[in-house]
Amino acid sequence: MPNMLMSIPDRHFQTAPVQKTDICLGFVGRFDPEKGIADLIQAMHQLQQKSPVSLTLKLAGAGALESDLNAQTQRLGLEKQVVFSGWVSDLDEWMRDVDLLVVPSLNETFGIAILEGFCHGKPVVSTQVPGPQSLIEAGVNGWLAEPGNPDDLARVLDLAIRQQDQWPQIASCAYDKAKAHHYQQMLPRIAKIVRGVIDR
C-alpha cells in the first residue's frame, strides 16, 4: 500500500532567494543503523571544516543507536553543533527551525520523512536508494548522495548549501510532489488498483 500524507500545510514558505549564513540541518526518524545517521554526523564534521556558513544539526527521534551517536558526536567535538531533540510532538514547530532536511538512509523502501520535508517547503538531501529515488529528481526537487558514503554526503550537502539561490524553486517543486501523495489524490489510484485485482 503506498504511503500517503493525511494533511499538508498551506504553502507558507520562503519564495524569494535568501543567502543564509547560519544553516540548520535536520533529521527525523528512528535511530537505527539503516537510517545512516552516523554517516550524517561524520559528514557534518567534514562540512564544519570547509563550509562557508555556520552549521547546526538537529536530530529528532530515538532508538538503539542513541548512545553510540552521542559518543560519536563527542568524539568529533560536535557537542555544540549537534542537538538531540528526542521524539517531537509538534513536527510543524520543529520543522520551522530546519533549513535543509537530510534523509541519509542506507536502505529505504519509500521515505515518508522526505514527503514531510516536501510538504513543509524544506529542501531535502537523501541517498540513491529506491524510496528516495522514487521521490527526488536530483537538482529539481532535492539532491541525492551515495548511500553509506559520508564523503559524498558531505559533498552533496555542501553543493546544496552553495545553491541556496535555488531553494525556493526546489521547495516549490517538492511541495507539488507532496501534494500528489495526499490521500485525496492517492485513494482513487488505490481503488483502481484494487478493482483491477478483483476483476481478474
TrEMBL record:
Stated EC number for the protein is: 2.4.1.246
Ordered alphabetically, the record's keywords are: Glycosyltransferase, Transferase
Tell me the ranges covered by the Glycosyl transferase family domain, including all copies: 13-165
Might you name a Gene Ontology BP term for this protein? carbohydrate derivative metabolic process
Does the keyword section mention Glycosyltransferase? Answer: yes
Q: Name one GO molecular function term.
A: mannosylfructose-phosphate synthase activity
Q: Which Gene3D superfamilies match?
A: Glycogen Phosphorylase B
UniProt keyword Glycosyltransferase present: yes
Q: Which Pfam families match?
A: Glycos_transf_1
Name of the protein this chain belongs to: Mannosylfructose-phosphate synthase
User: Per the UniProt entry, what species is this protein from, by scientific name?
Assistant: Nitrincola nitratireducens
